[in-house]
Amino acid sequence: MRPGGGGAFSPRKSKGQNFLIDGRVADRQVSHARIREGDTVLEVGPGYGVLTERLVGLSSDVKAIELEPELAAHIERLLGDRVDVIVGDALKLEWPRFDVFVSNLPYSVSTPIIFKLLEHDFRRAVVMVQREFAERMVATQGTLDYSRLSVNVYHRCHAEILETVPPSRFRPRPKVESAVVLLEPRPPPFEVEDTGLFKEVVDRCFQHRRKTIRSALRSHGLLPDDEAGVPYLDERAETLSPEQLGELADALHRRLKS
User: Fold this and answer.
1) What is the pLDDT of residue 4?
2) What is the DSSP string of 67-108?
3) What's the rounded Cα separation, in Å, for the pair 234 and 213?
């Protein structure tokens, strides 16, 4: 396998594998990451190593999680001990500690990877995802793209779409555009009394987004018989702001405790 190429390895459509081949896009991604001296950088799904080659030029501690043994071997041959390659499924492995996350994510696992990322402490993340997914990440109340992803990202990070990337920058060419998204953790704009319950309420309400909040919660046993003090029960998830969903979760927490 040659640098920037995949040799005999063929990306698998079933796994959403479309590998970046444009170094100019990778240069911009790495620039947005603002890697500092001493930073540990984590990449998930290095593919042909276009990003990885640039990351090791800025950090002496780069870790890359790669599912495909052939691609992991390619990265090791290409960069030697300049990168710590971890072979395995990033959804199942325990991630190492890191300061900066830079990855071009397979479309098929973008959702669980982003949710797993949000569970970690980090300073900055730059991710390439399908454009429609990126739009869901930054969507606001009342829009068609507003979702549980939007709420969870907003609660944890500042999120911003930095640029869109056409299909011609990948091999093989996907049928959709991609987008580069910046995530910067910040203090939550609102506090909740029980983070686990808040996440479950958000999940269940958006799982049944066409139903009222009352119906969605009741179908999962989250609404007590005594509804006193629980707001927004006649609304739908897409009409509530993240802050209002936090109010709902806190009211449920107090009611379930009593």
Assistant:
1) 47
2) S-HHHHHHHHHHHGGGEEEEES-TTTSPPPP-SEEEEE--GG
3) 6
C-beta separation of 176 from 25 below 8 A: no
Give me Rg for the CA atoms of the chain: 20
* pLDDT per residue as tens digits for the range 142-161: 999 999 999 999 999 999 99
CA angle (236, 113, 121) in 5-degree steps: 95
What domains sit in the chain, N to C, each tagged with a CATH number? 13-185 (3.40.50.150), 195-257 (1.10.8.100)
Positions of the chain with pLDDT under 70: 1-17
Q: Which parts of the chain fold into alpha helices (H)?
A: 23-33, 50-55, 69-79, 110-117, 131-137, 148-156, 195-207, 213-218, 242-257
Please give the pLDDT value at position 106.
Answer: 87
Name the nearest CA neighbour of 50 among 67, 29, 68: 29
Q: Which 3 state secondary structure label does DSSP give 55?
A: helix
Burial of 228 (0-12, 13-18, 19+ CB in 10 A): exposed
Q: How far apart are CA 174 and CA 107, in angstroms?
A: 10
